[in-house]
Amino acid sequence: MVRIIELIDDFKLNQEIIGRKPKYVEMCIWRLKRWQEYMETQCNVVDIEAVEPIHIKNVINSK
User: Fold this and answer.
1) What is the number of structural domains in the chain?
2) Residue of 34, 48, 41, 40 whose CA lies nearest to 6
């Protein structure tokens, strides 16, 4: 199983490799980590395979 945090780290590395501005990468990572924290604390989900549509709806509705 692939953990969400591992994919966030991969995303960050890919964005740096393609030359995205550091502020852009920082903003994306901040948002992704907020989502990852929500998934862990509110949904008890750490693996990407366990994410379901209802989890995404709950994130959207929690704002």
Assistant:
1) 1
2) 48
| CA–CA distance, 60 with 38 (Å, rounded to integer) | 11
Whether residue 43 contacts residue 58, with contact meaning beta carbons closer than 8 Å, is answered with: yes
Scanning the chain, the segments in alpha helix (DSSP H) are 4-17, 22-43, 53-61
Tell me which residue range forms the domain holding 54: 4-61
Angstrom distance (rounded) from CA 59 to CA 23: 24
Q: What are phi and psi of 11, to 5 degrees?
A: -60, -45
pLDDT of residue 22: 97
Q: What is the pTM of this model?
A: 0.88
